[in-house]
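Dear colleague,

Following up on yesterday's call, I've attached the two folding results inline so they're easy to grep. Please treat them as preliminary; we haven't cross-checked anything against experimental data yet. The first protein's sequence and structure tokens come first.
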Amino acid sequence: MRLFFSVVGCFVSFASLAQVPAQLNYTIAPWFHNRQAAVSLTFDDGIPGQYSIAVPLLDKFGFKGTFFTVVAIVNNQRISWEDINETALKGHEIGNHALTHPHFIKIPLDAVRREVADASKHMNMLVPAQQMITLAYPYGEGGGYSAKDQAIRKTIAPYFIAARATQNKLQPYNAYNFAKTNEDYYMINSQMITDAETMNNFGKYIDETIAAGGWFCPTYHGIENGWIITPGKVFEKHLKELDKRKASLWIAPFKNVIQYHKERNSAKLKLVESEGWRWKLSLTDTLSNRKNFDQPLTININTNGYSVYRILRKGRKMPFKQTANMLLFDAVPGPEYITIDFVRVKPVKSAK
């Protein structure tokens, strides 16, 4: 009799296990945490007000910016490299803006190469909190459409995952599909914040970006002091405009948005194994230099009503959210498998 009940118990168990969904229905969100659009606030040159005024304001609102830095300008300003490294430790990005800020169009390509390589070498030592993996072209030269611009892009590409230009599109933002080729990542469109018109239109630019599902990447210079000055009160007003719309926006440093976009457009999630109440998944991409790509992607999976109680990777629990049929979690592409354990109860179908 004991043997009979044991066999029946096993039969019921395996019958239940057979109901776990055997196919993977997923999407990778266009932007992190399913936001509608992305924004990266960038600052050029290395001007005192960027660190004494802009950084505290960014921290107040919980936003992170990107500071494209010229080594020679910082050395001639009242800024310490310790303060810049502290800014990096807070989660802001420090990017490369060349050694001396020359006109790339006017100098040989070997000189362009030295300008960016030497700047990275210096800043990687002076800002040990992070490595330089993005560039902003001095004067935007390298982000245009001439043969010399194209040659500049080819010269600097081995050193960086992307480069920001000045405004090279009709609209102030980048449409989501801005990168038809890898070269397009080295000519990112940026609206320069330079005058009363661009300062006053900031909210309008954000709304246009949200409507397009794109990426707004404005360029600031002086905040309260320096050159091409944005008053501190105006900059704070811009942050308030972002804060009002933050439910729709992913506000992140330049490098993080580039990482996400490149990873997302080359990533694939596969169901490697479906056994019992567990899925084994792989999340990989085709990017070759993994050390420069560590931005998590937001994964949305339709579980057909099955509830999840645990997600593991490398033996560690991963945070997740589940509403109705959708499971949401964040993960970096890599070789480690992701396991999803389902609650051992069949979903109840509502009566029609």
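Below is the second protein, in the same order (sequence, then structure):
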Amino acid sequence: MDCLFCWSLSKPLYLLLFFCSFSCIANAAFNLSTISFDEGYSPLFGDGNLVRSPNGRSARLLLDRFTGAGFISSKMYKYGFFSANVKLPGDYTAGLCVAFYTSNGDVFEKNHDELDFEFLGNTEGKPWRFQTNLYGNGSTHRGREERYRLWFDPSKEFHRYSILWTAKKIIFYIDDVPIREVIRNKEMGGEYPSKPMSLYATIWDASSWATSGGKYKVNYKYAPFVSEFKDFVLEGCPSDPIEEFPSFDCHESDARLETADYAAITRRQRSSMRRFRQRYMYYSYCYDSLRYPVPPPECVVIPAEKDRFRDTGRLKFGGSHQGRKRRSRRRGRIQVSSTEYDPDV
């Protein structure tokens, strides 16, 4: 959509500003170099449920009653930019979880780092929801999740989901709209992810928790459930976490990350991020004073934003939430046994 076209529509001004902002930002694409599947990834699990395209530029992950599927980056990275265009399954998707994330849980089982996009399915006619999260040094007892809705149907067309991770900050993007920024500070200490991680993509049965706290399960009458990935981007410094003397000098790679166009949020992007969070974020751990009487050190509490949330971290105009035990999550991920909260219950 042309940015100027928005102004010709007879809608309330705040809606015009909101959608025009996203349209304009989305048209200002980042300068990215894409790779083929085999250039950066390897199968993780699922055998025949991971289907690569004939030209190797895309891959499908399927979930059926026998197994889900996943792939993993062939290398681990000490900081990077990880991105792909993704299309999610449609129709009835309750109980599904499609994840695009970085982790080193296979190497550091007790003190792993992790950065998550987790897309949570829903009953037919209801929209997908998703959450972002981060763990540093095994801080699974201290979840940092936020949950959101989307301004589009992610099953109808591809959208780009990206994670920027540097020594100074973490930014989650949808298309070119930043939706969450975490600035490192010394109070975070080891809870800021800082060890080399791999990039993962998975689809799996999360019936025990993904939709309304497990009320709605995966219905295999609608299988196979298909998620599609293409236009892969892996930017960063390859790193072996157990090498005594690293074989790669990361200074040049880190400098490229710090100066890339996706590393700095422009004034227009920051405005779009603020509007996204005002309209689509429905849970934030930073405002969950029952869970965290003192907000974690990276939280930036915005009084006008805080006023919209209950002391549970949930929006005042809907829902309740409670603690529960989260069960083993997906193949290729470590088990998180600490108590977590589900804002959709």
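For the second protein, one point worth flagging: The first strand starts at residue 41 and ends at 45.

Best wishes,
A.L.
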